[in-house]
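Duplicate of #3305? Posting structure anyway:
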C-alpha cells in the first residue's frame, strides 16, 4: 500500500502554546486573521517546509472516487478565501474544505461575531458567510502549488438572495468551482444566514438536489471528470427529518454527506456568560449531538452514501468514535484552534 510520512512537528509543538497565549489575548477575529497571515508568510519563506518535513507513515484512503492522503480534513470556516491551502496542507491535513463561499463577495454579519468559550474549548460564530466571492476563491485555489490532498469547495447562497432563487446561487458556484474542486459541498445548515436552514426541508432539498445533479452531469461531460456533490446538514435535526432527508439523498443520487454543522443548542454551555450570543456553537459541546445525527444518517444510508463526520472532535478517541458511528472521513476546526498542529499530526498518523 502506498503511504505518506509526516514528521513530528516538534517545533510547532514547542511554540504553539506560546503563540496561543498571545493570540487568545486578542479579539478572536483579529487573532484568526493574524494567525492565517503568519502561516502564509511562513510557507512562502520556506519555514513550514523546514519544520514540517515528510517523515511519519500515513496510509491514503479512497472515498467518492477521490484519493485522500489520510482521513483527517479541515472543516469549512477556517480558510474562507482558499488562500492558505498550501500552509495548512504542510501541517498534515489530507483534505481542506474552503468557504463557505458565495457567488458574490459579501462582508458577513456585524462585528463582533466570533466568541471563545475557553472553559469548554468551544466557539460561537455568527460570521454570516463573509467571503471574497466564488471567482476569487477559484483564483486562490489555482495559486495553490504544494498541497497534494483534496480541496473541497463549501458553497452557499448570498444573504440577499431569497430562498426561491437559492438554486441559481448554488448553480453559479457549482459551475465556477467545478474545474478546480476535488468535491463540492452544499451548505444548507449554517444558522447565520436567515432562512438558510429552511432549505433542509425534504421537499426543498429534493428540488435543489435534482437541479444540481442535472448540472453536475452536464459539467462532468464538459470537463471529462466527475466532481462529487455533497450536502452539509445541521445537528439540530429530529429522527423524522433525518429519515426523510436520507430518502431524498438516496433517491437523488447524492455523492456524499457532511454531518454536521454547528448547533443552536446551548444546553452544554448554559453556564458560560457568552452562551446567549447568537450563532452556531462548535467544539466539544456539540460532539454527542453531532454523533447522534451522524449515526442516524449512517443507519438510513446503510453505506450507500459516504459520510464525513465533523463536530466536536478534539482527540483520537473521538475521531475513532466518528468512524465507529459511520463516518468514512473526519474533519476538525475548533480543536485545531485550541490545540494546534500536533492534533492534526496525531489524527493523520493514527486514524
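Output from current build:
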Amino acid at each position: 500500500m502506498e503511504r505518506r510520512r509526516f514528521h513530528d512537528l516538534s517545533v510547532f509543538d514547542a511554540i504553539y502554546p506560546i503563540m496561543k497565549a498571545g493570540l487568545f489575548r486578542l479579539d478572536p477575529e483579529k487573532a484568526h486573521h493574524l494567525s492565517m497571515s503568519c502561516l502564509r508568510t511562513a510557507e512562502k519563506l520556506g519555514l513550514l517546509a523546514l519544520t514540517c518535513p515528510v517523515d511519519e507513515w500515513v496510509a491514503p484512503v479512497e472515498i467518492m472516487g477521490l484519493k485522500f492522503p489520510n482521513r483527517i480534513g479541515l472543516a469549512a470556516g477556517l480558510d474562507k478565501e482558499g488562500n492558505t491551502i498550501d500552509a495548512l496542507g504542510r501541517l498534515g491535513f489530507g483534505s481542506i474544505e474552503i468557504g463557505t463561499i458565495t457567488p458574490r463577495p459579501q462582508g458577513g454579519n456585524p462585528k463582533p461575531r466570533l466568541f471563545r468559550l475557553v472553559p469548554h474549548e468551544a466557539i460561537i460564530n455568527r460570521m454570516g458567510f463573509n467571503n471574497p466571492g466564488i471567482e476569487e476563491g477559484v483564483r486562490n485555489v489555482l495559486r495553490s502549488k504544494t498541497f497534494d490532498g483534496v480541496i473541497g469547495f463549501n458553497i452557499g447562497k448570498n444573504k440577499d438572495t431569497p430562498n426561491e432563487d437559492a438554486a441559481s446561487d448554488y448553480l453559479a458556484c457549482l459551475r465556477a468551482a467545478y474545474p478546480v474542486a476535488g468535491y463540492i459541498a452544499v451548505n444548507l445548515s449554517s444558522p447565520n444566514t436567515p432562512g438558510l436552514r429552511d432549505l433542509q426541508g425534504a421537499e426543498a432539498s429534493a428540488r435543489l438536489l435534482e437541479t444540481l445533479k442535472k448540472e453536475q452531469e452536464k459539467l462532468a461531460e464538459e470537463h471529462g471528470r466527475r466532481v462529487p456533490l455533497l450536502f452539509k446538514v445541521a445537528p439540530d435535526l429530529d429522527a423524522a427529518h433525518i429519515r426523510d432527508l436520507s430518502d431524498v439523498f438516496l433517491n437523488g443520487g447524492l455523492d456524499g454527506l457532511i454531518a454536521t454543522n454547528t448547533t443552536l443548542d446551548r444546553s452544554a454551555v448554559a453556564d458560560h456568560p457568552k452562551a446567549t450570543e447568537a450563532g452556531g456553537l462548535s467544539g466539544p459541546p456539540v460532539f454527542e449531538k453531532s454523533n447522534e445525527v451522524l449515526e442516524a444518517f449512517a443507519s438510513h444510508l446503510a453505506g450507500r452514501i459516504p459520510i464525513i463526520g465533523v463536530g466536536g472532535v478534539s482527540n483520537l478517541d473521538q475521531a475513532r468514535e466518528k468512524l465507529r458511528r459511520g463516518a468514512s472521513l473526519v474533519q476538525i476546526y475548533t480543536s485545531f484552534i485550541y490545540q494546534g498542529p500536533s492534533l492534526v499530526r496525531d489524527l493523520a498518523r493514527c486514524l
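Confirmed duplicate; merging threads. Residues 16 and 201 are 42 Å apart (CA to CA). The two ends are 16 Å apart (CA to CA).
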